[in-house]
Amino acid sequence: MRIAFADLLFSWPPQGGADADVFHTCAGIQALGHDVHLFAARHVESRERTGFEPAALPFPATRLDFDETAMNRKRVPARFREAVDAWRPDAVFFTFGYFLKPYVMEALAHYPSIARFYAYEPFCPRDLRRFKDGVPCPYDYLRTPDICRRCALKSLAPEIRSWRFLAWGRDYWAARAFMPGYHARLVAALRNCRAVVVYNEMTRRLFGGFNENVFVVPGGVEAGKFTVCNKPENRPMVALMTGRVEDPVKGLGCLMRAAVRLRRHRDDFEVWVTRPDWPDAPPGFKATGWLAPEALRDLYGRADICIVPSAWDEPFGMAAAEAMAAGRPVCASRVGGLQDIVVDGETGFLFDREDDAGLAECMGRLFDDAALRTRMGAAGRVRAESEYDWPRIVARHYPRILERLAS
Amino acid sequence: MNKARRIAVYWSPGRSLESALEAMAATEPDARLCAVVPQGYPLNDSERTLARDVIQAGEAHYTLRNPWPLLQWIRRLRRERFDLLIVLFDSPRLMAMAGAARPCKAACLLPNRVLLPMPASFPAAMALLLARRLKGSGVHAFLWLLVRLSKTRGERTSDR
What we know:
heterodimer; A: alpha/beta; Rossmann fold; 2 domains; 7-stranded parallel sheet; 6-stranded parallel sheet; 15 strands; B: alpha/beta; 5 helices; globular
């Protein structure tokens, strides 16, 4: 089968889990014997995305460059249609995109298609997280569009007023997502897909009534690149938090509160976090800086335990899967995809969202018991290899999805 | 003999100075690069090699009541007479600072290594910021009315 991938944000090297997912899905489906071709937009004046060089990818790819004037709801779908039609695919796989994605899906509606969603893009025009004022948001754009339209505009007001946009805001403007008709376009695009792919069960349920063929495919890690090494027995012990830790929804505040609680009883540990600088870091906290993937893998090896205290419903939870691949036990909050990745009591511990007392208890148990750390780390490594290694994920999930596409 | 172009790269938190210097070295191999960094910024070996000059910034300690450190800092930058001043974000503050430093040219280096031209004089920077603010405020007022006065048709099970 000839499968065209259409992506509006792809960057390589990856700038997030979605880029890694697109890359490994393309490479994996190609390895299954299909012809793949990635068509990806690059906004030349993007403040966030770095774009990619097609020659650097292990599969054929075409980069469609758009300047500020061309990045709109007419020219982007037209360029995609022209490029994809010229390649004559049997099917199209829509990957990452914000508000312009339904327009591209509409332009390529004459092909059987799959749409992949990485967070809550169709449900939250505010910021794709469905998380507001410190709690999960009860609304979703597909069911309560007018409430969500007002919320999105309020959230994006500073960007609009200063007329200086980041990717989400400029896509919102370019797609005219504030218009009442945008909702119908999005619903039609979702219904036209033969299948929708999401990260977890919770997101699958949200699609109910809008597309009945929703498949849960988790993200993955390159398990082979992680080596499990024993940390030298030197004090203090290290709890590591990786990812975009400066983002409040990632729960660094909860970890800091937990560390303060734990310090009342012991001071034999440090907390390392991957943020570039932290001049006012509390005692016992250390910023490691942003790290390249190789350095990050090495960092996992120097930690004793890993903490993923996310407050929002993390769609997947790459940090937890990486820590498990590195053979480290994980303390993760019981949210979104994290509760699927971490097996409570086996590969780590789960604690309730924002429950710093629960987190402190989990950390204390792991710090106290070296054998427990080793056992959970080993179980995590086995789980990462068997469940979250990229080639296995693609081979396990995509054949039946592609069957659905061909049927 | 032509004098090498002096290009200053003004570091901001959240972006890598090393990759910015690499990008400029690749774009202008003959230029003399200058890194403008905060006091005590730990330059790594690669950054030291790429940047022939290093200026330690002191502008962070000004307040509205005491803008003197900022003015001194701007004067320092003006004396350098850079051929090109690169900032790593096009925020209003950096845009105003780049204009006030009066280089021959100013630009924002985007993460994809594209240079976005910026005003190289303070009045031009302020005029651009004001024009954007006026346009943005007008558009926002229109959208505010639009989302309150228009209703989405179709799928709604429990709106409100």
